[in-house]
Amino acid sequence: MANEEDDPIIQEIDVFLARSLLEKLYLFQYPIRPASMTYDDVTHLSAKIKPKQQKVELEMAIDTLNPNYCRSKGEQIALNVDGTCTDETSTYTSKLMDKQTFCSTQAASNVSRYAAAVYKKGELHLTPLHGILQLRPSFTYLDKADAKHREREAANEGGDSSQDEAEDDVKQITVRFSRPETEQARQRRVQSYEFLQKRQAEEHWVHLHYYGLKDSRSEHERQYLFSHGHGLAENTELIKSPSEYLMMLMPPSTEEENDKPVAPSNVLSMAQLRTLPLADQIKILMKNVKVMPFANLMSLLGSGTDSTAVLRCIQQVAMLVQGNWVVKSDVLYPKDTSSPHSGVPAEVLCRGRDFVMWKFTQDRWVVRKEVATVTKLCPEDVKDFLEHMSVARINKGWEFVLPYDEDFVKKHPDIVQRQHMLWMGIQAKLEKVYNLLKEHLTPKKQEAQSAHPLLVSGEQRVNMAKAKVKQNYGQLEKEFQKQKAEMKSNDTSAKMDVSNIRIKEEPVSDEEPMDTSAYKGTNNGIVNGLHEEEDSTGSLNGHLPGGCIDRVAQELKAFVSSTFKKQFVLTLSELKRLFNLHLASLPPGHTLFSGISDKMLQDMVLDTGCKQILVPFPPQTAASPDELKVYALWEAGDTYDQHRQVLLEIFSKNYRVRRNVIQSQLSQECGEDLNKQEVDRVLKDCCVSYGGMWYLKGTVQS
């Protein structure tokens, strides 16, 4: 207690984990330089990197005008390296050593313990480092000078020999054929130092651009060092129980770990699995199981696991198919990988597997031949896709491996709706990539399965009927007793004295007959979270309370306002797409999940100060009705409002316009000569350039 009083807590600092630069942030350690020179003052000529090897080469300019620079020594080094003649291949084109190359080496093999920290406004933001590289001077130019020296000596020694003497010197050549390489010899060759050096040399350099400390791009990238979301979704690693935190502070000794039996690299015990973060546990389980109901996943994660956190993490690595979770394609086929069967890149494999998953969202059965025809992939790859999530049935096709999980769908309608919108986005991409026909988009009805007629004898039928009667006897007896009780109660009520009961008589008006028409139900058809009908103004879930309607309107107005302040011009199709993405990012149970119709969205656009621009599209346009509706923000409250209004008036009369026409019209209407930067600003807000012409955003027909 005395020690605690002597050392009080002065300040508590919140720690946040930034993920924007995860696996992208490197720490470069430069050589020590004079205190008067900072690295921001040094001119970086060029930089290049080999990402797989984490190897960097950096060229820096040397200040040859510095009084400490020895000019004679610099000229001598340039002469030794390049010789007397200079050309494009010369290292020092100025005949002076005016630059120096730095090559990187890894300072530590395990950098998981290191992070870059930024302190701002009482918050400490940590970003894990992906690598620590030490840059040291490279002296490859000395090797080049030695090679030049050897070439000159060889030329001097062989200068006296003639061509005739070279032709007379004939040597016998022995031809040998190499034997087939064994597996052991191949493994030794692959593990040899020469082979590894060759593999490293084969990796191409990726050239980089250097930005100074005060450059605007550097300031923009520096913002990624801060955690922009302070919710639990991005900081689950920082939430540990006391026992887990103690284990992190005092990990087990390496001797104890070495005594444990070594398991195969692809096997992970449940005890080891539960030491990992929740997101990694879910990713490993889904990657191995491929398809899993949510209830089974919760049982594997152990008791006490928060289902909300699991739902948040599972959506990062899996998609919902028939109420069950199927691992995402990019988890099974990461970037820069290829198919082991055909060598097809991972991007093509992900599209093909997404098509199979999408087909299972439409129907329980998928035909392998149809998948191969649409995706154009080899049969082995298609079979792998189907085996991940389905079972082959003879003469039927491939059936989804798990039954439809109605319990999960009923308990989590918001998750189901969000996943439905994500699938609609995937469907739109698949339609463009594979040019899907209507027969692919509509689910096929299962044909009645032809079965052999079952022959049942008369005696068997009698026995089956007797068993059914015995089974239903108890239920029939209960219903009979219930009817008798109701009849007795009706007889008792009939004997009641009704003398004191008076019926109030009202005059019947002939002008207002009673409405006996059936109530018309609302249409619950929804596409991408939006009603298809233009006249659908009601909510998806029926009538909402007045307060709820106001909250929905406020949320919708905030979305529309912020979107148009960023985009200025949007088609209805693009606005609906952005709205669906916005819905997918909202937490479960948000008010906007009550359902928004197309008419509500368009009315809100007009209420926020936007106007519809009647663009004269060409008659042969193939645009959809939603793409023909163009809306623009009429007043943004800045100095360019008048210029944008003139520009929108131009496009209300012309589908496409040349730049010189726009500039002259702006100068004429606004009464001032606009410079190039101002015209570019207005065009950037509202238009796009294609083929030398300018179009309003979203109206270009390729």
TrEMBL record:
GO cellular component: RNA polymerase III complex
Domain named DNA-directed RNA polymerase III subunit RPC5 C-terminal: residues: 444-702
Listed Basic and acidic residues bias regions: 146-155
Name of encoding gene: Polr3e
Matches recorded under PANTHER family: DNA-DIRECTED RNA POLYMERASE III SUBUNIT RPC5 (PTHR12069:SF0), DNA-DIRECTED RNA POLYMERASES III 80 KDA POLYPEPTIDE RNA POLYMERASE III SUBUNIT 5 (PTHR12069)
Species assigned in the record: Jacana jacana (Wattled jacana)
GO biological process, one term: tRNA transcription by RNA polymerase III
Record protein name field: RPC5 polymerase
Region (Disordered): 146-169
